[in-house]
Amino acid sequence: MNDILPDDESYWSTIRAQYSPSRDFINLENGYFGMPADPVRAALRRYQDEVDRDTSLFLRTRWAARLARVKALLAEFTGVAPDELLITRSAVESLNILLQGYPFKSGDAILIARHDYDSSHDIVRMMAERQGLRVEQVDVPYDLEDEDAIVALYADAITPRTRVLLLTHVVHRTGRIMPVARLAALAREKGIDAIVDGAHALAQLEFTIPQLGAPFAAFNLHKWVGAPLGTGLVYIARERIADIAPLYGDVSFARDDIDKLGHVGVVPPAPIMAVEDALAFHAEVGGKAKEARLRWLARRWMDQVRDVPGVRVYTPRDPRLHCALGAFSIDGKPAADVARRLMDEHRIFTVVRRFGDVDVVRVTPHLYNGPEDLDALAAAIRQWAPPR
Q1: Domain spanning 9-30+286-384: which CATH class is it, in words?
Q2: How far is the C-alpha of 328 from the C-alpha of 79, rounded, in Å?
Q3: What residues does CATH 3.40.640.10 cover in the chain?
Q4: Residue 386: what pLDDT?
Q5: pLDDT tens across 203-214, in order?
Q6: How confident is the model at residue 388, as a pLDDT?
Q7: Cross-strand bridge partners of residue 202
Q8: What kind of fold does domain 42-281 have according to CATH?
Q9: What gap in Å lies between CA 261 and CA 246, rounded to an integer?
Q10: What does pLDDT average to over the chain?
Q11: Beta carbons of 87 and 261 less than 8 angstroms apart
Q12: How far is residue 53's CA from residue 56's CA, in Å, rounded to a whole number?
């Protein structure tokens, strides 16, 4: 399906028909949680009925094999081995496992970026207080598109104390795709570790984990993979598993067994089993075709407003540097007011994100959105732009 054009509405209408979004509003806030396609939702209900019906018999006699199957499929999808993956409940849980389990020593430093996710900032600052770590921060201007310059900013921020470089793959505020492979290579050159926050990257962009070049990574499955809410993923290179201490107590696994990190008690099996169906639907659409369509949808609204006086788009102009996520502001109008009016007056749902000392409106279309949804957004923005 990778030869499908992103503006082939005859094809994409068949994909849109496999989703059931609310008819009450246009949802352009799909960055928080991506709606599963109808086949995935139907599978989730079947699995939940199976678990509820057979209860302990299912958990004690079938669950291990079903879980192993899902991990094998995820391994094939991500390009790594099943024993390097751990299914979690979210990217935030995955980051906690990696960061809190990392073998820091007092005085070590973690290098973060201003644009990193708020929860990752919280984890790092909590650990800094508890363990006597230093927090170093780099500020990448939102309009800096030169990747050489970005790598140079990180290189200049690394100090002899830096032990870990935390890297966001897709910036959740602006949609900017960061050069994570180059930054991970920089970390290796400096003898430090890169931890990739890929919460928005997996299945929005077409890549495999080895292409990142990092020994550690955290992902969501309930965003762009299209799995049910409450599914995430941890990747740890096999030779580094022993270095990560368990966040949850369990002494029954070997030090080099990634399952030592996943003892959180009984978890709902149905959402995890439905990952298989989400991966199947993603394969049906085609990863490259999906990425191209999402980028085309984003360009649909951004290209209409980017050069409108009084409107500022915070997402890179170069289409290679973003995919679905985008953000904007309107001079003289608080972002919260813009988001409220979009919903109240146009039934368009968006979200406000904080970017440094500026609030922006984030726009995130999904495969079930059509060009008319983005045209409606662009028309509203142009209507509210201040006169010049």
Answers
A1: alpha beta
A2: 35
A3: 42-281
A4: 78
A5: 999 999 999 999
A6: 61
A7: 205
A8: Aspartate Aminotransferase; domain 2 (3.40.640)
A9: 5
A10: 96
A11: no
A12: 9
